[in-house]
Each structure stands twice: as C-alpha cells, then as structure tokens.
Amino acid sequence: MKRHVRTAMAVALLLPGILAAQRRYPPPEGRNSNISRVVADCEERTNQFRRSLRAALDRSAYEGTRREDQLNVDAERLERAMNRVREAWNREHDPPKTRHFVEDAITAGQDINRTMVRRRLNPDVQHQWDVVRNELNRLAEAFELPRIRW
Question: Reduced to 3 states, what is the DSSP secondary structure of residue 60?
C-alpha cells in the first residue's frame, strides 16, 4: 500500500514538469510532414498556373499590352515567393522562421486576384487560379495565419 502511495505521489509531482517540457519541443513530425505536403502542393499549383497564364495571355486580347506584362510580373513574383517558402521550410522546418515568406506569397496572390476577378481569362486559367487560391488558404492555415480574404 505504501508503495502505491509513493508511486502516486511521484507521478503527481513529476507530471506537470513532464508536460511542460513536452511543450518546448518542436511539433510532432506528423505536423511537419503535413506542412511539407501543403508547401509542395501550393508550389506545384503556382507553377502550373504561371505556365497556363502565360499561354492564355499570349492568345488573348492582352497580348502585347502593359496589363499582360504586369500579370506576368505578378505571377513570377508569386512563383519566386513560393520558391522562398519551400527553401526556407526545407532548410529550417520551423513555421515561425518561414511565416514571413508565406506572407509574401499571399500578398503576391492577392495582387493577382484583383486582376483575375476584374478581367476574366479563359475558363481553364480561371479554374487554376481558384485552385491556387485554395492552396494559398491551406498554406495560411498551415502556418497559422488568418484565412485570406479574396
């Protein structure tokens, strides 16, 4: 009986320290692999969108205009921002250290979205943009940023 009481007291005394120590360690590997998957998916969709946008603009009324140039610049900026997200995440696996790169990608996405909403392109590019927006929202959620207001 005394042994059980001592064991219970030891557990009661040690448990708060053990739980506090566990909170200081990085998140479980499962969360990191989920973030890695979200980053990879978002980067892949962004790259696909940029290629499709470029092709669609070349066949549109925007061919040769400043609007075409600006959309291409914005899409390239989004792609570069996503590359920086991937590189930072792969290097650190640390959400706080990667978060500002994610914010840059979201800002670039919001700039593209303003144009995509005002000027409809072909349905395939519009669909791809919808997918990119969803991926950017998943990215924001993975890095504990507010949901994006499109």
Answer: coil
Burial of 64 from C-beta contacts in 10 A (0-12 / 13-18 / 19+): exposed
pTM for the model: 0.77
pLDDT single digits (tens) 34-72: 999 999 999 999 999 999 999 999 999 889 999 899 999
Sort 106 into a burial class: Cβ within 10 Å, 0-12 / 13-18 / 19+.
buried
Phi, psi for residue 59 in degrees, rounded to 5: -105, 15
- Taking 3-state DSSP, the helix, strand and coil percentages for the chain, each rounded to the nearest 5, stand at 85, 0, 15
Rounded CA-CA distance 25/19 in Å is 11
Which tokens go with 86?
């991937």
